[in-house]
Structure formats: structure tokens, C-alpha cells
Amino acid sequence: MQWWCSAQGTQWSWRWVAYPGVWLFVAAAIAIVVSLVRGEPWRRMSFGHRAALIGGLASLWVALDWPLGPLAAGYLSFAHAIQFLMTALLAAPLLLYGLRIAIIEKAARAPWSGLPARLGRLLTTPLVAAILFNVIVAVTHTPKVVDGYMKYPFGAFVIDSAWLVGGLLFWWSIIVPVPNHGKFPLPLKLLYLLLGTLFHTLVAMILVSAEFPLYGIYEMAPPFPLIDALSDQKLAGSVMELGGLGLIFFAATIIFFKWANEDRKQVPQ
Q1: Gap between the Cα atoms of 4 and 25, Å rounded
Q2: C-alpha angle 132/141/252, rounded to 5°?
């Protein structure tokens, strides 16, 4: 049993390992979600919102728990890439979309005033959120941080949590129209989405093009069947590039068609 998934330096085994820290983290996320949607908000939510909420929680759990969690922490760089995508680019927007109605209603009953509200407004401002997200992506994928933090449960917890927080901040202004994003037009959302994720593409290109392994924690890990460290790293870059582009393209397609539908409604019949 370990508190959180971290690099162990031992031969990989498919034997199940308990990670109570992950369970508590997911349980806390579920408790927050339930506190926001219980009662009338849940009854007014559509099937799509409910499915997104459940899917977001499930994605978060799968990303952090066994077997993906320990594989990402100390064995396979491409598992690390999958974990990042599932946390920041899948679980985060699904959770926000599922909670969208509840957040709007809570904001309407509790005006955004005071220091916490001002801080929340600042952090979810598109430019600030995009900068913070890309800083998190950059820092958490540097060899010094990966090699220095992933071998400790608390360090791995910090990285995983940073991905989730960064993802929530990044997607907030696209999905949630409060506190100050109701006038964030769809064309700008589309541009924000495409430009705001460029840095993860740069990280992916570096991983694919590198001639040697960049992360000691994966290079020095006990050999994993059928793949060497450099091939694993190139696969990680491909996963980040293609998987990330797929998720971003899906979201961009939704925004584009909403934009096209708005323009069609404004054309005189």
C-alpha cells in the first residue's frame, strides 16, 4: 500500500496495489460535486450534463489510480502523457460542463464580491488562465521536475493536482460564463482554445524529436516489456500531440458549430 502513486524503482508487476490517497482525493472531488448539484440543480440538469459529470469523475479516478497512476509515475513516459491528457484536457472540461448549471445558479445567489471572488475572477480571466496553464505544462514536463518529484508520493501528488487545477482554470472561460466571461464571444473562444494549447504541442514535438531519453526516472526504470526508454519517449510525444489535438479539435468543432448557428440565426429570413 502507498499513499500516492510514485516511482518505486522496482520491477513492474500487474499485482494490484492500494493507493488510499487517490481514493480520498477522488472522494473529496465527489463530495464537492454532490454539494454543488444536490437538490434542484441535479433535477434541472440534462442527461448530457449528468453524463459529463460522471465521466469527468471517472476519468480523474482512472488517470490517478492503479494501473495508470503507477505506470505514469515511474515506468512509462507515454503513460505519463496519457495521464496528463486525461486529467487536464478530459476530466477538467467534463467536470466543468457537468457543473455549469450549478455554478451559474450558485453565482447568481452569491454575488462575486470580496477578495476570494476577485481572485477567482482574475484567475479565470482568459489571458491569465492560459498563461497559468502553459506555465504548469512547461514546468511539470521539465526533466528536473519530473525526475525530482515523481519519486516521492507528495511530489507526484503536486504534479497531478497542478494538472487538474491548470485544466480547470484553462477551460473555465470556455465553458462557464461566470463571473466575467458571459461576453467572451465564440470566435475568441475558438482562438483562445487553439492558441492556448500550443505549448503542450511544443512539449510533444520535443519528446518526439529528442535523440536520447530526457527523463532519468523513465530511462533508469526497470525494463518494461516490449519497449525501450527512447521509443517510450517518442510514443509519449505522439500521444500528447495526437491525443491532445483530438480533444482540442473536438472542443473546437463544438464551438465552431455554435458560432455558425448563432450567425445563421442573425441572418434575416
Answers
A1: 10
A2: 55
Task: Give the start-to-end residue ranges of the domains of the chain.
Answer: 20-266
Contact 214, 233 (CB under 8 A): yes
Cell 511530489 locates to 155
Alpha-carbon distance of 130 to 81, in angstroms, equals: 20
Number of H helices, E strands in the chain: 15, 0
Q: State if pTM tops 0.90.
A: yes
Q: Which residue has the cell 522496482?
A: 10
Our CA angle for 183, 189, 194, nearest 5°, is 165
206-222 tens-digit pLDDT: 999 999 999 999 999 98
Owner of C-alpha cell 514536463: 141
> Three-state secondary structure along 21-74?
HHHHHHHHHHHHHHHHHCCHHHHHCCHHHHHHHHHHHHHHHHHHCCCHHHHHHH
Q: Which residue shows C-alpha cell 518494461?
A: 224
Closest CA to 247 of 187, 155, 148, 167: 167
